[in-house]
């Protein structure tokens, strides 16, 4: 049965990635890169036609457990409906009785791959890095709040529960900043009067006031982040990314008690950045946060006392993932390990196969730069058993 094509491309998310991981093969993945109108190396229509030709040749060259026409027909319909201009990158996933088109802005790869699994490795980092969060621009004179979602950034309303500047906060909720050290005077404690013998410095007073202000901001933003997260699939509060000078970001991090802060931050003067300036830097910070999570898994991997629950080697990890044994997998970015799986002519990347099988069976995947993985293996896994 030929699936009804839905040509409204949507961004990939974790749920869709796991759905793709569960599709039986043969699986056709088309990667169409970003193209601007008038590009010298072809429109998306031309590229789609070339990728269709390549996929057709691969499907017809060898025997698969599906009729090639069942896959070629929807791919041909897709290629015929592509416009002749430009646009953001696309990824097309076609399997028996299944078709999905995803929007992948910034994609540079152009490829047609027929294998037992969809080629998902190139999309794991972008999907698993935070993609919907708020940005707090730290500035004593005027704080800023922005919302980042899927590569775009726009201003967000400041919460009414707290002023957006320290000066206004002084009259809003003035704490006691005297902090004077006192000593008793007189011979009887019942008749003592206080004698000031030392004051905190102006710098210490300012730091304490700033801490008090950041506490209030943290409490107010907690409600904003909870409300935003209530509309997501997991109903968790939205994360918060800090932007500002390093010292101010560190001070806010010390004060924050309620919000989930990303481990990274955007360094610079937020008042000098537009939302368009924030967007690419926020994406980089989110990816760096995801890498830090992966590095924490690798540290756990290296320190595990039960070495029977750790595994290296591409083929070994793939087999363990297929058996549902992989709990957490770390894999090298932009690294392939060609091989065949259950089919002598499949154009399979065994690292991708291990990633797909891990996701299919509910495990976590972290893509890392190759130098973060063991020297002998581009994959490392923590096993369930």
How many H/I helical runs?
Answer: 10
The residue ranges in which pLDDT falls below 50 over 5 or more consecutive positions are 176-198
Mean pLDDT: 87
CATH fold label of the largest domain: Nucleotidyltransferase, domain 5
* Sequence of strands across the biggest β-sheet: 1-4-3-2-5
Characteristic terms for this protein:
60s Ribosomal Protein L30, Chain: A, 385 residues, 18 strands, 3 domains, Translation, Eukaryotic Peptide Chain Release Factor Subunit 1, Chain A, 10 helices, 37% helix, Nucleotidyltransferase, domain 5, 5-stranded mixed sheet, alpha+beta, globular
Write up what this structure looks like.
The chain has helices at residues 14-21, 44-61, 68-81, 121-128, 166-172, 202-229, 246-255, 275-303, 314-322, 350-360; strands at 10-11, 27-32, 90-95, 98-103, 111-115, 132-137, 144-149, 152-155, 181-185, 193-198, 240-244, 261-267, 310-312, 326-332, 338-339, 348-349, 364-368, 379-383. By secondary structure, it is α+β, with helices and mostly antiparallel strands. The chain has 3 domains: 1-119, eRF1 domain 1 (Translation, Eukaryotic Peptide Chain Release Factor Subunit 1, Chain A, 2-Layer Sandwich), CATH 3.30.960.10; 132-168 and 201-296, 2-Layer Sandwich (Nucleotidyltransferase, domain 5), CATH 3.30.420; 304-385, 2-Layer Sandwich (60s Ribosomal Protein L30, Chain: A), CATH 3.30.1330.30. The strands form 5 sheets. Strands 1-4-3-2-5 form a 5-stranded mixed β-sheet, covered by helices on one side. It has a 5-stranded mixed β-sheet with strand order 8-7-6-11-12. Strands 13-18-14-17 form a 4-stranded mixed β-sheet, sandwiched between helices. It is globular. Mean pLDDT is 87; it is low at 176-198.
